[in-house]
Please model this.
Amino acid sequence: TAILIVNNYRDMETDASVGKRTLAVIIGPAASRVEYIATLVLAYGAPLALWLAGQLSAWVLLTWLSLPLAVGLVRTLYRTRSGPIMNQALAGTARLDLVFSLLFTIGLVLS
Model:
């Protein structure tokens, strides 16, 4: 979902100019950034909730090692909306998804 949000955020002006009504166009840049942060909070909160509920061991918290990548991406979304940098943010979000997923998988295997 975060990848789609960044993609729509990047293309917001172009989409609006041709009449495309993506969620980013409808809610605007500020709310799109909040939406992006919300998806990350939910992603990082899920392993924490599973651990706190006693469903999985603390190994699932390995996902939090990827948090610096997420923070950097959020900062990028707040600093600029230029095309080339947003392309990097899009790739970075895909990379974050991969790293988070691998760490979560490792945590599940070790649980």
Observations:
- The chain has a mean pLDDT of 95.
- The helical segments are 2-10, 12-17, 23-52, 67-79, 83-110.
